[in-house]
Structure formats: C-alpha cells, structure tokens
Design goal:
254 residues, alpha/beta, TIM Barrel, 12 helices, binds 1,3-dihydroxyacetonephosphate
Amino acid sequence: MRTPFLAANWKMFKTVDETVTYLREFCALTAGVARAEIVVAPPFTALRAAADVTRGTNVGVAAQDCYWEREGAFTGEVSAAMIKDAGAGYVIIGHSERRRLFGDTDEWVKRKIGAVLASDLTPIVCVGETLEERDANQTLAVLDRQLDAALDGLTPAQVGSLVIAYEPVWAIGTGRNATPAQAGEAHAHIRARLRGAFGQEAAEACHVLYGGSVKPDNIKDLMALEDVDGALVGGASLTVPSFFAIVTGAGRSV
Ligand code: 13P
C-alpha cells in the first residue's frame, strides 16, 4: 500500500523566522508519526532554513516552483539545481495559481518536471479543472490533456516516483471541496490514465493527492477513497495544530 503523503503548500506566507518556529514545533510532533511522508513547501527565501531545521526528521521540504534552465540570464527565476543546493527534496510544479496568474503552460510544466527529475528531486505535479471546465463536462478531458503533456517522454520508473496532486481549481481557497464522488471519479481516472500509458507498476507506485480546502474535519473522508493517497494543503497547513491534525487524521496507515 502507498504511504500516506501529506504536503503543506504555504504559498506566499511566512518569513524565515516564522518558518523556523513552525517547523521546530511541528517536527517535535511528527517525530511520533510512523508511516507517512510529510512535506512542507515554504517560499524560496525560507527553503534553506527549513532544510536546516528538518534535517534528520521525518519532514521533507519542497519548493513551490522552479525554472527549467540550470542557470543563466533569467531574472527572478530559480533553478531545480539551486533548490537542491538549498536542501529541498521536492518541487511543486504546475500549481493552478502558477498556470492562471503567471502563465505556466502545459509545455512549461513538462520542461519543469524534466528539470526537477534531472536534479534528482521529486516533482509534485498539479492538475485540475476550472469551474467552467467542470460545468462544461470537460473535467476528465482537461485532466487527460494536462497529464499527457506533463508526463510526455517520462519512463514508467519516473512516473512511479512522482507525486500528482488533483486540485480542482474551484475548490482552492473557497472552503468548497469536491464531494467524495467527484474526487473519487477524478482520482480513479488519473490512476487509469497512468496505467494505460505507463503500466500497472508505475500507476500503483505513483502517489495521487487531493488538494482544495482540505481541513482536519474532511481529511478522513478523502483518505477513505481508494485512489486518494494524501493531500496537498494550503490554508489549513499554515498553523501547526491544523496541519498536524490533518497528518494524524489521514488515518489509514499513519
Ligand atoms: P487550500 O487548501 O487553501 O484550498 O489550497 C489548496 C492548494 O492550492 C494547495 O496547493
């Protein structure tokens, strides 16, 4: 069975000091959690501090984005190699806020995933439909398009090592999360798509997370779904008690 995977996406929140204070307290609590992969994604400025505080603990560190070139004249960008150097092990790629507010395309997502893998980091690849796309019955087609573009050219072993996050855009920060039926359908579809393109072993190994208004009081119902392996949590990951309650509530085999 896949290990439950709980990731905190802090977005543009927390200074270096706030990151260190949070992680000292959080890591003390998670020390007793036996079987879960736990990852926190602070802003770039706090990556190094987060890596230092979490060293030797069971909490990993992720960046929230990267650029696909290794170095060069790309003002404002940060490469996967630099993220690795800062001590992170994961990079979130293709978050809907990047796609919607900053113009990340399917092609860019693919290039960024390639760069992350080339630096021996684990991509957390976000996919998900907008409300208009859901209302137009396009959800599964959108997921197919995003997945096919993102994973194009990867080997089954690479796909097996990935984390994919299904985040319906209309559920992000809205307090409105997908019903178990909606999440279950999307997750089963993603798993089937992976199986069809990369084989049973890769599909079974890949973690598929749900994201969008995950809270301590809805994590259990989400984790009860067969193809939901964990969660990518925004707002409810910003305080230690709330994110820790989500980690413990993820139940199943935590
Ligand atoms: P919320 O949990 O705040 O809805 O955010 C979800 C998200 O975008 C995580 O990446």
